[in-house]
Amino acid sequence: MAIANRVEAFVGSKEDAGSKIMRHAAILSGQLQQLRTRMYPPTAQKALRPFLTNEVSKLTSIPDSTLKLLSTEGRGPVPSRLENNHRVYTLAQINELRELFAKQKPSDALRFLPRRGAGEHLQVVAIANFKGGSAKTTTCVHLSHYLALHGYRVLVLDLDPQASLSAMFGAQPELDVGSNETIYAALRYDEAERRPIRDIIRKTYFDGIDLIPGNLEVMEYEHETPRVLAIKSSSGAIFFERLKLALSEVETDYDVVILDTPPSLGFLTLSAIYAATSMIITVHPAMLDVASMNQFLLMMGDLISVLNESGAQLDQDFIRYLVTRHDPNDAPQSQVVAMLRHLFGSDVLLPTAIESTAVEAAGLAKRSVYELEMGQIGRDTQKRAREAVDAVNEAIVRLINDSWGRT
Ligand SMILES: Nc1ncnc2c1ncn2[C@@H]1O[C@H](COP(=O)(O)OP(=O)(O)O)[C@@H](O)[C@H]1O
Ligand SMILES: [Mg+2]
Fold first, then answer.
1. Which domain holds residue 148?
2. Same domain (yes/no): 379, 322
3. Is the separation of the CB atoms in 145 and 371 below 8 Å?
4. Is 277 in the pocket of ligand 1 (CB under 6 A)?
5. Which of 7, 45, 88, 377 has its CA 20 to 30 A from that of 216?
6. Where does the pLDDT of residue 229 fall: very low under 50, low under 70, confident under 90, or very high at 90 and above?
7. pTM reported for the whole predicted model
8. Pocket flag, ligand 1, residue 359 (CB < 6 Å)
């Protein structure tokens, strides 16, 4: 028998490299899909947790005792009760409280309702860096949540074909975002198909935050733009002006627009930088990431000179570097941070986005640290993460308020 059979058995048992890799990919896909489904079921509807009075008090600067008094007197929004009888408010109710207090104390209205007023321009913040994993999307989510929790009106734009920002807001790119429903719809060059930006804006589960979702469709802009540039006969705005013009149509509806950019320096990112009134460049403090950021800055510098040649000027209120996924106990990271601070001084934000298992775990469940309920992650870990994220957001919001001339 034997030899032929044994050879066959041997050949049969030896898997070639191609099938092995494919088999491993299939096993891993299955496992990842299972994990994803467990962390965030495809049918999951996002909802924002309610807030305890002490948190409401911190967010609104309305004293705890005043909240209690309002509720016992039956004035203002009626809070729900938890099983332990503690009062909780939804974000919509928190915003009602803000309106109430702003109306009652007009001289102090800004403290309760910090929306921009006459003479304060729409702040468009681009979060950029073409290094993937530099926490651009996480920074966008945290900043938008912080702003909305403090009473600002926010629009977030997902310019990344990977659409992780949209997913964080519960718009799953493959399921919930159809064709001509991304920002591409408002930018496209064929007028018959183009849509007003207002028509593609969605409300989100997070009171005060609207979303323009992304998916692979936004790549069309990268393909179409060079084609149109080549023809040169195109009417209407040149490519980099289109986003800014589209945003101007909804200017009065928002205080802050946040642009999540893709990990590439294409026409969309350039449009974002042009539309932006300020920019946060996220950087993970590792030598490779800094080298990559250097490339990013060089290319951006080139592109900005191209803009300048065509008569366009960038006019930004502030540009800051934000150190992300920072482990302050890691010596090599500390060296990189020290170098950045030495080179760029106060252009590097003082607070850093500290690496935290709370941020990571929240991210897997498509949440921000603001959405975590107590007890989901170790209490101290969660508290530290929240404080670190707050510090970064406070610094950015201070810059925004400075740009409005508030002190
Ligand atoms: N401070 C942090 N601590 C721990 N993990 C983080 C932190 N910031 C971001 N991450 C994780 O790093 C990964 C990349 O972040 P992401 O925001 O998607 O980056 P980008 O948008 O630049 O590609 C995500 O899994 C995110 O949850
Ligand atoms: Mg991203």
1. 123-403
2. yes
3. yes
4. no
5. 45
6. confident
7. 0.90
8. yes
Which domain CATH number covers 98? Answer: 1.10.1660.10
Residue of 60 and 45 predicted with greater confidence: 60
The CA 135 to ligand 1 mean position distance, Å, reads 4
- Mark whether 86 and 146 lie in a shared domain: no
164 Cβ inside 6 Å of ligand 1: yes
Contact 378, 386 (CB under 8 A): no
Query: Over the chain, what is the mean pLDDT?
Result: 90
Question: How many angstroms does the Cα of residue 352 sit away from the middle of ligand 1?
Answer: 13
CA dist., res. 129 & res. 351, Å (int): 19
- Ligand 1 centroid – CA 280 distance (Å): 15
283 in the same domain as 153: yes
> pLDDT tens-digit profile of 136-153?
999 999 999 999 999 999
Task: Write out the DSSP string of 374-400.
Answer: TTSS-HHHHHHHHHHHHHHHHHHHHHH
pLDDT at 4 over 60: no
Nearest bound ligand to the CA of residue 135: 1
Please say whether the beta carbons of 219 and 161 come within 8 A: yes
Residue of higher predicted confidence among 4 and 128:
128
**Residue 325 CB less than 6 A away from ligand 1:** yes
Q: Which of 283, 284, 360, when mutated, tests ligand 1's pocket best, judged by the most ligand atoms within 8 Å of its CB?
A: 360
Find the 361 Cα to ligand 1 centroid distance in Å.
Answer: 10
The mean pLDDT value for 166-183 works out to: 91
Residue type, 247: L
Asked if the model's pLDDT at residue 79 lies above 90, the reply is yes
Indicate if the pLDDT at residue 41 is higher than 80.
Answer: no
- Alpha helices, H only, 52-207: 53-60, 64-72, 91-104, 109-112, 136-149, 164-168, 184-187, 197-200
